[in-house]
Recover the amino acids of this structure.
């Protein structure tokens, strides 16, 4: 099994920045990609960003392109999400998720006030 711990969420005003972190431990040898997802109140979980360990290539949802940056360390199995120019619609619980696993952490709350 894979264990995940997310951190770094909080309350910020619109236009502000936050940095989220996630550490994975356990059976991580099969993980090829780690991503961030989010779930806003009353909505389903949606993809935000991801990074591939093989070449450090990244993917982003259109809604966050140019504002969020994902980075990671494949040796330490950690990823981060630098969020800038935050908007109220970014308010959600953010989760990290390693590919090829069913592991989800408890998430970290991000609240952006207008």
């Amino acid at each position: 099994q894979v264990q995940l711990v997310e951190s770094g969420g909080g309350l910020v005003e619109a236009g502000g920045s936050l940095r989220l972190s996630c550490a994975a431990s356990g059976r991580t040898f099969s993980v090829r990609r780690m991503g961030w997802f989010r779930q806003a109140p009353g909505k389903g979980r949606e993809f935000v960003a991801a990074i591939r360990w093989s070449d450090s290539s990244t993917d982003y949802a259109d809604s966050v392109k140019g504002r969020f940056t994902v980075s990671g360390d494949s040796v330490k199995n950690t990823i981060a999400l630098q969020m800038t120019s935050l908007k109220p619609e970014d308010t959600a619980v953010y989760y990290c998720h390693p590919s090829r696993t069913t592991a989800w952490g408890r998430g970290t709350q991000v609240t952006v006030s207008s």
Summary: Strands lie at 2-7, 10-13, 18-26, 33-39, 45-52, 58-60, 68-73, 78-83, 92-98, 108-113. Residues 93 and 109 are 4 Å apart (CA to CA). The two ends are 39 Å apart (CA to CA). The chain has a mean pLDDT of 95.
